[in-house]
Design a protein that fits this description.
There is one protein chain. The protein is an all-alpha fold. It has a single domain, classed as MetI-like fold (Orthogonal Bundle). The protein is about 70% helix and about 0% strand. The longest helix has about 35 residues. It is elongated. The two termini are about 15 Å apart. The model has no long low-confidence stretch (mean pLDDT about 85).
């Protein structure tokens, strides 16, 4: 941990990106205490008000303006971070667990029927455009947070499985694995004790970038109206609702778009630094 903190401290961009990510996560957790207004409170008399607008009754201003239904844009962005963060990390946890497990089994039993079936299943799934399959499945299941997580998790396991499979194929021929097999260790023990720990670095890097891509995918599906219900504030849903007013009420789409861009950019910057940190060939002693 001391080495991790020292290297992060000497990389200002990665350190700042991590601090901003922690800030976004903290905002999403404490949204009810931070948001100045109820994100679903409709006041048509206050619709399409510009940033820093203060009502006739005074009080807390609408720092980022209001949308077409008079809802506070800042409050909706704060609450929208809860959906993006929860979907991003939940999908990565589910798809990562499935992908790593299937990749370990496929790589350890390379050349078997099980390996062929799993890899051909991945090839078939990759042959279809993601948004086409997602739209079709969500059109049948209906919009909702649970269905959205299921669709994204079903698609995200492939990258983990392919990378872990390749590493497992290489590791199972190493001398320490052969020695463990020679003393009577079973396949499960070898996979969990010797192969899996040597794949963590790559898996963590894949997961960091997968969070960013999942947030973008959730925003895209919400923009199409196939994410969570419209009553739940999301960044993608805010972009969809504000596209008809973008010419005059630019703030409705600008600030949610900046929230998506900043969050994804921070994740990518930190993930890029984490990749270099976990690669021993790139470390400077």
């Amino acid at each position: 941990m001391r080495e991790f903190g020292w290297r992060l401290f000497h990389t200002p961009a990665a350190g700042l990106a991590l601090l901003l990510l922690i800030g976004v996560m903290g905002i999403s957790i404490a949204a009810p205490q931070i948001a100045p207004y109820d994100p679903t409170d409709i006041k048509l008399i206050q619709r399409l008000k510009p940033p820093l607008w203060v009502g006739e009754e005074g009080g807390v201003p609408h720092y980022l303006g209001t949308d077409s239904l008079g809802r506070d844009v800042l409050s909706r962005i704060i609450y929208g971070s809860r959906v993006s963060m929860s979907v991003g990390f939940t999908v990565v946890a589910i798809s990562g667990t499935i992908g790593v497990t299937l990749g370990l089994v496929s790589g350890f039993f390379n050349g078997s029927l099980l390996d062929d079936v799993l890899m051909r299943l991945a090839d078939i799934q990759l042959s279809f455009p993601f948004f086409l399959i997602a739209v079709a499945i969500l059109a049948v299941l209906g919009p909702g947070l649970k269905n959205l997580i299921i669709v994204l998790a079903m698609w995200g396991w492939i990258s983990y499985a392919r990378v872990v499979r390749g590493q497992a194929i290489a590791l199972r021929k190493q001398e320490f694995v052969e020695a463990s097999r020679a003393i009577g260790a079973g396949p499960l023990h070898i996979m969990l004790r010797h192969i899996l720990p040597n794949t963590w670095a790559t898996t963590i890097v894949i997961a960091s970038f997968a969070v960013a891509s999942t947030i973008v995918a959730e925003a895209g599906l919400s923009f199409l109206g196939l994410g969570v219900p419209p009553s739940v504030p999301t960044w993608g849903g805010m972009l969809s609702e504000g596209r008809d007013h973008i010419a005059l009420s630019w703030w409705i789409v600008l600030f949610p778009g900046l929230a998506i861009m900043a969050t994804v950019l921070c994740i990518n910057i930190f993930g890029d630094w984490l990749r270099d940190y976990l690669d021993p060939r790139l470390r400077q002693r």
